[in-house]
Amino acid sequence: MSNQANNNSFKMNIGGPSIILLLTVLGLAVFSILAVRAAYSGLKMARTSAKAVSGYYEAEGIAQEAEYLIKEAIEGTPAESAESAKAAITPLLPGTVDLVSVEADRIVFEVPVNDTSVIHVEMTSDTGLDDLKVTDHRLVVDSQEGYSGSAFEINVIDIN
Fold this sequence. Notes:
Number of strands: 7
Strand order of the largest sheet: 1-2-3-4-7
Structural class: alpha+beta
Largest sheet: 5 strands, antiparallel
Order of helices and strands: HHHEEEEEEE
Radius of gyration: 33 Å
Helix content: 40-55%
Strand content: 15-25%
Mean pLDDT: 82
């Protein structure tokens, strides 16, 4: 009778709990690897964003300095023609500023932000170049991995 009682008693098998523990540890390891990868991707994106923002604000500072220098150059020496205005403005501008055009009532220049984008600034006046005002100030992305720049223009200031 005692043999019958032993055969019906509960026996603990080690195999089932071991497999469950092994799968749990494996799942946690996979999730920890994914968490580390996600954190690294977030760090990489934050560094890229910080670099882009600092480049933009550096170019924005240069553009504002160029606006001031152009106004000072025109006010200091009244220009009879666009050519004399260009000659007065060009030596004063920082090296990264690209003077696109100087006309009788309009000055256009660009400041590069990075390889694919520039800050485009237009200054116009109703009375020659005496009273210049910023009429267009925008970030223009020339090309972005196959996309045209027209979809990426951001008007910072658009005064009309």
